[in-house]
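for the recovery benchmark. tokens below, seq after
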């Protein structure tokens, strides 16, 4: 079928105003935020923008009957090529469907459609003194549908966990167009162990099992107070040792971030006014809760840091907190400054390792950067071992692209070798699918059995999470 015919048939199904036909507009859907999508553009044959469960179901039934791949898409902020149609077919853009259906304050939950932007949801919830704790750096881009599909989190995961901890129920349109509600079809309970946990199965399935059309999210009381501690460490090994001491003192901060010497250098080049000292690591602790406990915990953290750090500052004043946090908030952008003609790329950017291996992984990534002649900036959520690696290259130089692909491959393998994961929060998509068996072993066969049961024709976001053609003996 030609693209024009496909677009016409989709328009007949759900209305021409919900089908994109302009070739220029279609190009927008050929990439996400990953480096892979900059190397290879994947043009969809058609894009639909449904705004009801009925529309989604009609498109899925049609795609199922005609064996057409369908790739769900939210904000397109993913780093893994997850929302691009790497095997062609239809991209289903859920981002315009952004209604907050209901804030059920009495039952501490909210019902939203998939396209609601994370930051907007929290802006709305704050009017009710509530919040949805997972906090991706992409808060102004990521949709709730995309966050559920990727099981996203952020720096507060150390205390609050990931999206999976808040999803109470989902409306899902299955690959054949059938509609199910997980977590109890009329339930408003926040606690239930009834039935198989299909909600958890859907969370993190990256659009490979169905389209999420409504999310029932648990929300929490918004903490009244916050404080930030910054500590400078001349010796890298002292940073994780300090994190451990804080945990052992009975404190669970809402965020614990690290900048290693590469990140400190990048930040100083980008924001010289910060004038960060020449050190091997900076730790930032965020504490939240009620004012008295925040004060107590902050004072205790500062005391613990002083055992090893050369400088420590604790602040609860909003302006001072922003100033202390600035080093961390600019790091991702600052990374490119380590090389005037370079760009920071999103590849090998999200490994996660046990806390006890953080210093080893940082040192070995540095050595790998030297091996491949690539500058690498490291920072991340040390509280849960999630390291963000930012290689800086000239993306137009083929030789450098080839080198960085070898580097990022080694970074992923290193994470698995150290008992970690190839991704702490950004997901697998296309770019990490090849590591599935290495990371999970024969459990991937079980994932495939589930995939085949729900999607026997393999039309839902094919090519993502694992390689269907590979087997456990490969
Ligand atoms: C600057 C920046 C910072 C980031 N920081 C973080 C961070 O701190 N933490 C983090 O976890 N991630 C982060 N990310 C990655 C990304 O923002 C998250 O993975 C986010 O949740 C993706 O949401 P999205 O709406 O953009 O989804 P998309 O990129 O559009 O899609 C992501 C995946 O979800 C699937 N999907 C989307 N909507 C649906 C749906 N309705 N039903 C079924 N499947 C669906 C897609 O098929 C795809 O597989 C960052 C990205 C950027 C660019």
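predicted aa per position
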């Amino acid at each position: 079928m030609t693209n024009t015919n496909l677009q016409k048939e989709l328009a007949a199904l759900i209305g021409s105003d919900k089908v994109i036909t302009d070739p220029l507009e279609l190009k927008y859907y050929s990439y996400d935020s990953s480096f892979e999508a900059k190397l290879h553009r994947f043009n969809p044959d058609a894009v639909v923008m449904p705004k009801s469960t009925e529309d989604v179901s009609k498109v899925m039934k049609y795609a199922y009957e005609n064996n057409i791949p369908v790739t769900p898409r939210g904000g397109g902020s993913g780093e893994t090529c997850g929302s691009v149609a790497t095997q062609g077919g239809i991209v289903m853009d859920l981002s315009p469907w952004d209604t907050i259906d209901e804030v059920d304050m009495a039952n501490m939950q909210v019902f939203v459609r998939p396209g609601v932007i994370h930051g907007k949801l929290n802006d709305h919830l704050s009017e009710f003194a509530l919040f949805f704790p997972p906090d991706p750096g992409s808060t102004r881009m990521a949709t709730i549908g995309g966050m559920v599909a990727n099981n996203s989190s952020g720096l507060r995961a150390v205390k609050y966990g990931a999206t999976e901890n808040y999803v109470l129920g989902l409306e899902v349109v299955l690959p054949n167009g059938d509609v199910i509600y997980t977590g109890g079809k009329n339930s408003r309970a926040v606690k239930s162990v009834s039935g198989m946990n299909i909600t958890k199965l859907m969370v993190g399935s990256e659009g490979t099992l169905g389209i999420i059309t409504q999310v029932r999210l648990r929300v929490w009381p918004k903490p009244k107070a916050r404080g930030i501690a910054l500590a400078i460490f001349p010796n890298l090994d002292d940073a994780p040792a300090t994190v451990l001491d804080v945990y052992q003192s009975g404190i669970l901060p809402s965020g614990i971030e690290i900048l290693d010497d590469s990140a400190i250098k990048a930040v100083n080049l980008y924001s010289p006014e910060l004038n960060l000292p020449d050190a091997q690591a900076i730790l930032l602790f965020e504490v939240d809760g009620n004012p008295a406990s925040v004060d107590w915990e902050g004072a205790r953290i500062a005391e613990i840091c002083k055992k090893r750090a050369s400088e420590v500052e604790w602040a609860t004043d909003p302006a001072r907190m922003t100033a202390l946090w600035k080093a961390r908030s600019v790091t991702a952008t600052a990374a490119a400054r380590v090389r005037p003609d370079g760009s920071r790329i999103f590849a090998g950017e999200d490994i996660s390792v046990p806390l006890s291996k953080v210093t080893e992984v940082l040192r070995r990534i540095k050595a790998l950067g030297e091996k491949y002649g690539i500058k690498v900036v490291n920072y991340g959520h040390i509280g849960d071992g999630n390291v963000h690696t930012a290689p800086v290259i000239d993306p137009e130089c083929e030789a450098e692209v080839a080198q960085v692909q070898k580097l990022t491959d080694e970074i992923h393998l290193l994470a698995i070798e150290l008992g970690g994961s190839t991704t702490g929060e950004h997901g697998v998509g296309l770019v990490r699918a090849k590591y599935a068996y290495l990371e999970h072993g024969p459990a991937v066969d079980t994932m495939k059995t589930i995939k085949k049961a729900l999607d026997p024709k393999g039309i839902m976001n094919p090519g993502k999470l694992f390689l269907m053609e590979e087997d456990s003996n490969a």
